[in-house]
Amino acid sequence: MIEKMITEKREWILEKLEVARRDGALRRLESAPKRTKKQVAEDKNRALEIIRSRIAHFNLVYRLSWKRIAIRNQRTRWGSCSKRGNLNFNYKIALLPPYLADYIIVHELCHLAQMNHSKKFWDLVAQTIPDWKERRKEIRTYEVGN
Ligand SMILES: [Zn+2]
Predict the structure, then answer these.
(1) What is the spatial distance between Cα 80 and Cα 97, in angstroms, rounded to a whole number?
(2) pLDDT value for 30
(3) What pTM did the predictor assign?
(4) Residue range(s) defining the domain that contains residue 14
(5) What distance in angstroms lies between residue 100's CA and the mean position of ligand 1's atoms?
(6) Same structural domain for residues 12 and 40?
(7) 123 and 55 in one domain?
(8) How many whole angstroms from its chain centre is CA 86?
(9) 40 and 8 co-located in one domain
(10) Which is it for strands 68-72 and 86-90: parallel, antiparallel or unpaired?
(11) How far apart are CA 25 and CA 140, in angstroms?
C-alpha cells in the first residue's frame, strides 16, 4: 500500500523537490548583500569584460560576426540576439558561475547563425557546450529579476 501511495504521489514529490532545489539555488544568487549603484556599475563592466573575452574564445570555432554587444538591465532574460545582429546580455552574468555564463554567451552567439531553437541550433551550441542540456536546466534555477 505504501508503495502504491509513493507511486501515486511521485509526481507531486518530484515537483516539491524541484521547487525546494530552485529556492535553494535562488538564495545562492540573492544571498549576496544588496548591491550599491557603484557595485552594479562594476558588475556591468565586469560582465562586458567576461562576455568580450568569452565570445572571442568561442568565436574561434564559430567565426560569426555581430554588430554590437550591449549590457542591459533586463528583468526577464539573460540575453538576446536581435535580427540585426546585436547581442544583448544581462549584467548579472557577472554573478553567475562561469560555466553557466558560458552557456548563455554561446547560446546568444549561435543565434547569429540560427535565429531559432531548432536541432541545427542546438547542434551548433553542442560544438562548444556538449552538456548544454544540463547547464540550461541549471540556469533556470537562477532568478533573473530583482
Ligand atoms: Zn535562444
Answers:
(1) 19
(2) 57
(3) 0.77
(4) 1-31
(5) 14
(6) no
(7) yes
(8) 17
(9) no
(10) parallel
(11) 10
pLDDT of amino acid 108? 97
Asked if residue 109 belongs to a domain, the reply is: yes
What spacing in Å lies between the alpha carbon of 66 and ligand 1's midpoint? 16
Residue with the bigger pLDDT between 24 and 132: it is 132
Sorting pLDDT into bands at 50, 70 and 90, what band is 31?
A: low
**51 occurs within a structural domain:** yes
Ligand 1 centre distance from Cα of residue 97 (Å): 19
Q: What is residue 14's predicted lDDT score, i.e. its pLDDT?
A: 75
User: How far from 124 is each of 40, 98, 99, CA to CA, in Å?
Assistant: 33, 20, 17
Do 18 and 68 belong to one domain? Answer: no
CA separation for the pair 66, 132 (Å, rounded): 22
Q: Are residues 39 and 16 in the same domain?
A: no
Distance from Cα 139 to the centre of ligand 1, integer Å:
13
From ligand 1's centre to the CA of 120, what distance in Å? 12
63-101 tens-digit pLDDT: 999 999 999 877 788 999 999 999 999 998 998 999 999
For the segment 119-124, the average pLDDT, to the nearest whole number, is: 98
Taking the centre of ligand 1 as the mean of its atom positions, its distance from the CA of residue 111, in whole angstroms, is 7
Number of domain units in the chain: 2
